[in-house]
Specification:
Length: about 130
């Protein structure tokens, strides 16, 4: 599947992080990029748009990334959610992966990391 056939949701409470990710991901030619500012929006938007892959921060207001992943996986067990955190402890990593996260990245996320994950997801393999 080419990148032009996938959609991406970015969930981060930082508008600057969302803008940087959205600008780069859009430049790769993906079909659509959605933005959510907190975990509550992430769950709502996932159910509405069913993006191919989600990049989600862990520490957010209203609902954490871990809580949002848990709800999204309960809704769609095949969801591809990439967790990202600047406070990446082993506990966060374990929590994210046990909640059903597809991958865990330490912030700041590089464009190369984003591109690699999108290519892997587009090919349908982890």
């Amino acid at each position: 599947m080419p990148l032009s056939n996938i959609s991406v949701m970015i969930c981060d409470d930082s508008i600057l992080v969302r803008k940087k990710l959205k600008d780069y991901i859009s430049s790769l030619g993906v079909a659509a990029v959605y933005e959510a500012a907190d975990g509550v929006q992430a769950v709502e938007f996932y159910k509405q748009f069913k993006p191919t892959v989600v990049f989600m921060d862990i520490v957010m207001p209203k609902k954490t990334g871990i809580e949002a992943v848990t709800e999204i996986i309960a809704f769609d067990k095949n969801a591809k959610i990439v967790m990202a955190s600047s406070v990446g402890t082993q506990n966060h990593l374990k929590e994210a992966l046990s909640a059903g996260a597809y991958e865990f990245l330490q912030k700041p996320i590089s464009n190369e990391q984003i591109h690699k994950i999108l290519e892997i997801v587009a090919k349908g393999v982890k």
